[in-house]
Amino acid sequence: MTVPEARTLPSETIWRPADLPSRVLFRDSNLIILDKPAGLAVHGGPRTTVHLEGMLDVLRFGLAMPPRLAHRLDRDTSGCLVLARHDKALSRLGRLFGAGKVQKTYWAVVFGSPSAESGRIELPLRKISNKQGWRMVGDPDGLAAVTLWRVCGSADGVTWLELKPQSGRTHQIRVHCASGLGCPIIGDPVYAGDTDRPLHLHARELVIPYWAERPAVQVLALPPLHMQKALQACGWRTPAAL
Which residues participate in catalysis according to the annotation? Predict the structure, then answer.
């Protein structure tokens, strides 16, 4: 089985506030959609002193207050992340996410290959904790979680998947790939035991019907450099503009 070579993990990169404006994919008077880099936590914690929430002042773009997180991505997941620029936007986005009206598309490169070309994973999830930490597991008594998936390409024992979560559970895609498909994501230390590579999971696209009477906001984020070699092996072609 051929997998991407080990390299310095994105979590070892020091991200600075000055890096963020160049990663804005979309901005209007209500929203900012940011291409969050892999390795940057969205929230702080006892061991997390560098985090996105602490840098948002650089994204005010003339407003009195910095934007706020409308949802979250895992530290090592890259891609589209929505920020609300004011209270009304935060409230509206909360309702849209809560109603499942925001369409989210992820790309992942996984070990192995599913037995079909596409499908639907319905695997309820429950959080378990022990002295070593916590993780999510499939459990019939857990919270309902559904993910649609399809194969985009494969090569040398790895597969490029497009995944569309229909719910927003913690670590949903990571557990659904590992336990639902039997194809854990490359670089996932928790569900694949792979600590040698960065996580190959990317929030590729968001479609947000922010205004009912206007076209939806649709934004794409290019996959990060650490995923591109594996994606290219599976058939993805880097846009000519790069």
Answer: 74
